[in-house]
Amino acid sequence: MKAGLGKRLMTALVSGGLILFSAGCGEAVPVVLPEDVVLLEPVDVPDLYETAAVRNLYQIKSYPGNVSPYVEEYSFENGQSFTAYATYPGEYVKRGGALVDTNTEGIDEEIEKLEKSIAEADEAYQEYKKETDEKLCELEQKDAEYSKIMDNFEKQRPEEFLVIEQPDGDKAKEEGTDEKVPNPDYEAWNRDRLHWEGEYRRNLQALLECREESRERTELYDMDRAYSLSRLEYLNKQRSNSRLLSGMAGDVVALRYFNAGDYIPDGISVMAVGDMKRKQIRCEYINASAVRTAKDVYALIDGKRYEIEYEPMDANEYARLQSRDGVVYTTFYFRDDATEIPVGAYCTVVVVSNVREQVLSVTENVVHSDGQNFYVFLEKDGESIYTPVTTGYRDGYCVEILSGLAEGDRVKTDKAYQYGENTTVLERGTVDYGFSSTGYLFYPDTVEVTNPVKHGTCYVTECDLTIYQRVKKGDVLAKIRVLPDQVAYERLNTSLKREKERLWDLVMQDENNKNEKAIEAKREKIADLEKQIREMDEDAAVTAIRSPIDGVVIQPVVYEKEQLIGSDALLCMIADETRCYVVVDDTDGQLNYGDVMDIQYSAFGNAKTVQGTVLTVNQRSLSADLKSTEVLISVPKEVIPEMAYNAMFTGGFWNRRSFEVTGRVRRVSNVVLVPKNAVTLGAGGTYVDVMQPDGSVVSQSFVAGGSDNVNYWVIEGLLEGTKICTK
To answer: What is the pLDDT of residue 447?
Structure first.
């Protein structure tokens, strides 16, 4: 039965007034309408309905991550010149073990000079000390002797005057006129005493001066030596710091690429070491407040739940990460034993903000609002009745109904919804992702081969090096011709002749060994001139540059015949062929440490495949210094020569990228799978149509962890064995 327009308007006004009168901020109050007032469905709206059903509603967010070892990065305190890696990705290093070696020639020379200077100063001081101690001993012995003599003089001191008595008489006695005369013995004694006292005082003065000089010289020597030793300690520390050492035991999991001679700035991370026993989760950044307020936080790995502990990030670390590349990560630790979990495993961190289990709900589109209250149109006796409802939690697709409806009520909807006629039962399975990229050979252990000729003009007469050419130690890499510098050579020989003549003169004149130091200086000068002449003779005899090691040529420099080659000019780089990796570009950060990849290459026209293991931790575990899209993959040693040879054979340097690297990554096993053709994507997430035991169908949301080309996998909301409709 249809009502007229006037009656409909009157019904709307009356019902609106009653709702305003009866509804408040608390729970909805049932509305009692007069019997003659009937709420009818709106005009021209199709008769489409849905059923209020009991569902689970979720507010859950998932964050992709991976199981990572505890990682420490290491850098130099001072800028260094790179020489070679001491440890390589995938290799184990002990605590205190060397990671990187740098060029220490300058420091070594300074240390050698300082040690020589200290030794010479020690020798000179010991010689002085010996002479001074002997002199002091002699002066002290004389001082003791003189002191004894002076003591004896005091004991043997005679009277200074002699008294001569006058003849007896009263007058003489009364006036005391006895005569005193100088004592000749005293005068003789005093002369001897003054002589020995002079000797004693002169010796004492010499003794005091010698002691003072010895004290001053010792203090000066001690100060100079202390400074030199502190300087030596500093240089030795600098030298030890020139070897980058690991602060913990573990496996090398990342490195920064350097070639010999490259400058390494201070404070820049050069290498990372991972402790495989201390496992953690690194995932996309999660706000700390979201973790604190969450009802539950856990990790899912291959369908199994693991309890985890959030590690707050220091504000300075957050600012540092933001300033460097804008990528911030979050770290979690396992609360329980994680021995069974492999490093590199893909995982999902689940943050549960809200879960409403088994609550009455309808879809968002059936609930309307007049600005203050919510209502639906309830189907009753074929008519749509205006019905106020109280709503609760919303997940973006469905709305929780706290009052106003009951399970099974049919509610007017504006959107037609159809579910598939086919059904399937959910099962557990595996989701993974295909990875494909091109790779090239990378040799981190290299030696620079340079022109060894220091003296004269050098020309290349023959050089036919090619990329990936394999060489043995001692093999000729290039033939050269050296033109000696005759002017410099003759000047050195003339200087040598003159120095030898001057040395002879010094030796002949040195009757009392007074010219010993000058003679030694001349001999050193002669030895230096002879060394320079010998080096020029050796350089003039060089006809070829040879390989210092067994290896493969990876960076040859092209020289034309008779082209000039300077001293220390680069001829090529030779790599240790036994230590080699395949490098692939992982722009999306899909690869994790431990992933096994297939490496395909062509060998003499035949396609071959070998397996390699990813040796670089995921980018989330590294700072911006070491973070790179280039990932290292191990290569079986036995196939390296074949791969390198065929890369060279098929066209040279540019064909080094001819290796195809494929594999399955980000694998998630033992999870409930939902076919994509059964899933509806809504504002709140993912939904499927679940077949109820009575044959009815209810739209049910679920939390998806991810998907491949065929299936989604379930975090929450659906169980194995559930029957769903498919399209």
So the answer is: 87
